[in-house]
Each structure stands twice: as C-alpha cells, then as structure tokens.
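Quiz preparation item.
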C-alpha cells in the first residue's frame, strides 16, 4: 500500500509556515501499514496542483491533500479539484447547516464567504468537519483515492481521525507496520553504524534499521513489515534486546523519550533534587529540565554565571583559578558545580563552561570546547568535549552532553 501527501500553500514554500501536517499524517499512515512514498508541497496555483495530482494518479493507493480550502480568493483547491475530476461546485445543505450553527455559536453573522465554504465538488464524498467550516472531500479515480482536507492542523486531524483513517483501515488493512525507536546518546552516527554492523547484517528480512540523528541524539528506528502483528512484535522485541546487549552504554530510553524526561523520572524515583550553574549554555539546561511537567518536584534552580564576577560572588569560585587556568577549565567548572549544589541545597548539580562561538577561541581552547561537571555527595565528575563552530548548535550540544553526564551519575549512585 502506497500513499502520497500533497500540501498546498505559498506560505509553506516561502518559510512562513512550517509543514507539521505531513509529519503527523505520515506517522498515522505508516502506523496503518502504508508506505508513504512522497511528500510534495506546491503553490496555490492551478497548474502546480494539477501537476501534483497527475504525478500521484496511478502511482499511489491514497493521496492525502491539505490546504487551499479557505473562503478567500487565493484558496483555489476546490475549483482545481472540480476541473481535475470533471465536476462542478454545489452547495451541500448538511455542511451549510453546520457552518450556520458554528458561526451562530461564535456570535458571527453569516456572509457570502461562509456560504461558499459549503460548496463542494458534486462528485465527491463529503467529510463533515465539526472542528471548522471547511469540509473534507473524498474522490476516487481509477485505482487511486484522493482526499482533500483543510490545512488548519486541528481540522485536518479531526477529519483524519473521524473519517479518513477508519475508512482506509477498512479498505487496506492487509499489511502491518510496527515502528520501535531506541534513543541513544554519547557517540556519533558513523561510529554507531560501525558498532552495529554485525547487528544490522543479522536483522531478519522483515526488519529495517534507520539512523535518525539530531543534536547528538541518535534515534535508532526499527521498522517491521508483515502480515502478523504478534509475530512482528516478537521479532522487534528480540532485536531490541540485542541492541541493549550491544550498545548498553549509549541507550538512554525508548520511543520519543528525551534526556530531560529520563532525568526527571530518575530523580523522582530516587527522591533527589538537582540544580545548575551555566555559563556557555546560558540557561538552556534549566530550560530543558523545566520543560517537563512536574519538574518543580526535583529542580531547585539555576545560576546563569556568564561573567567571572557571578562565578566568584554567587558560586564561590576562587579568583586564583581564573588567573591560573581560565574560566573555561576543569578546575573552574568543578567549583561551579560544587557552588551550585551548596547554594541550592540539592543532591546533584550540573555546571558548564565553554566557548560557544563563533568567536573567542584560541589555539589551546578552540571554539566548541566545553567543560562539564556534575557534583553530588560522592564528589565531582567532569568531562571535556570539543564540538563545531555554530553557536546555537553548540549550546544545544553542550546542554545535552551535560544532561547525559548527569543521567549517568544518577544511575551510578
């Protein structure tokens, strides 16, 4: 079973709007057993839409289309679909009544634009939309299903859940696809692939492995395809066990779990607390930790010690260390971690000091260098790492590396 996704809208192509619809639809279709073979974004132009439809015709079992169904003059999808499927627009009384009820509840008077939204191609199957004013439209041509939906994410998701996915399930549920994500951190993609060479070559034919890196985190996605869900689940479980046996030092969780989520869970389980002292990361570690609901149970606070004055006065770093070793040094970052733990009264503290860039580096301390330390009742551990020269990327990588060191220390104690 093969699916194409077509998103329509100039705003997608010029970067004003990020296409989150395709990612969501792709995940849902894949879970249903579809091979999402192509995602295409096109202008709000008749010729571009027709070309995309022609490209999909006969090559896909289902084509999902979003965008261009609004009430304004630049929304031309319905008119183009009428042309493509050789039909005409007619007013749908059910849709019109739903729009009247919706605008009435919102205290908005009906106008011609609202009424036009009730117009649908005569040959389509109408998918009523309780989440908005634009209905979905289901067409069939030869061996391909075309489904047009609004580009507004919550409306698209409503139509998918209420109409599209259940119908596709009934028609096409012959193939089962199962995804399992194993989250890793602590090495780079090429090295991880080298380590997993034998593992990958030994995978059953039903299972494929993909590497999905992002800011140092590498998601290993195992995808099993077949006809028996129970057999595929068993195959996936066996391969996950092998991964844990092969790379236990790099795996920190499964599915879409983040390092900050894992750390929060560990701290809650152990009834422990953490604080932070950040220089080069500028509060990013605190941001990541507090992005998790319930983090107030284990996160006491953070000091953004960007200047040496703050490191000295607030965290108690001895001035002589700056003169002898410099702010970006193991000696200073260890003192920062100790000072933060004492200041906030926490079980753990994590500290960073480095050069995010793009300037400020030297021959001995290049851009991308970072010292990280974690302090606890058992003492202080520290690490040095050197990354690239992009500032924002470095801040993210510094922070994730610090969280990973913190995670390992919590586990080890």
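Solution:
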């Amino acid at each position: 079973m093969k699916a194409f996704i077509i998103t329509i809208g100039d705003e997608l192509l010029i970067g004003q709007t990020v296409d989150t619809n395709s990612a969501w639809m792709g995940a849902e279709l894949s879970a249903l057993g579809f091979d999402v073979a192509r995602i295409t974004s096109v202008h709000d132009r008749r010729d571009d839409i027709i070309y995309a439809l022609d490209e999909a015709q006969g090559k896909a079992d289902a084509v999902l289309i979003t965008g261009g169904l609004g009430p304004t003059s630049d929304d031309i999808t319905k008119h183009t679909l009428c042309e493509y499927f050789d039909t005409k627009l007619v007013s749908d009384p059910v849709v019109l009544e739903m729009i009247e009820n919706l605008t009435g509840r919102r205290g908005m008077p009906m106008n011609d634009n609202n009424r036009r939204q009730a117009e649908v191609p005569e040959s389509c199957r109408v998918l009523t939309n309780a989440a908005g004013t634009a209905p979905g439209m289901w067409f069939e041509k030869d061996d391909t299903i075309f489904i047009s939906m609004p580009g507004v994410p919550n409306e698209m998701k409503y139509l998918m859940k209420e109409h599209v996915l259940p119908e596709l399930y009934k028609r096409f549920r012959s193939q089962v696809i199962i995804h399992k994500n194993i989250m890793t951190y602590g090495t780079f993609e090429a090295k991880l692939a080298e380590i997993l060479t034998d593992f990958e070559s030994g995978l059953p034919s039903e299972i494929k492995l993909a590497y999905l890196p992002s800011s140092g985190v590498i998601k290993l996605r195992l995808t099993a395809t077949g006809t028996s869900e129970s057999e595929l689940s068993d195959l996936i479980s066996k391969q996950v066990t092998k991964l844990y046996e092969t790379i236990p030092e790099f795996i920190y969780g499964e599915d879409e779990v983040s390092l900050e989520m894992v750390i929060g869970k560990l701290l809650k389980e152990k009834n422990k607390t953490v604080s932070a002292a950040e220089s080069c990361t500028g509060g990013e570690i605190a941001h990541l930790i507090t992005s998790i609901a319930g983090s107030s149970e284990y996160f006491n606070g953070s000091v953004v010690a960007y200047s040496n004055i703050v490191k000295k006065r607030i965290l108690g770093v001895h001035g002589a260390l700056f003169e002898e070793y410099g702010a970006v040094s193991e000696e200073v970052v260890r003192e920062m971690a100790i000072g933060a733990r004492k200041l906030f009264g926490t079980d753990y503290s994590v500290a960073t000091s480095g050069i995010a860039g793009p300037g400020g580096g030297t021959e001995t301390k290049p851009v991308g260098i970072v010292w990280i330390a974690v302090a606890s009742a058992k003492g202080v551990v520290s690490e040095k790492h050197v990354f690239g020269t992009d500032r924002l990327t470095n801040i993210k990588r510094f922070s994730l590396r610090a969280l990973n060191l913190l995670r390992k220390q919590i586990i080890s104690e």
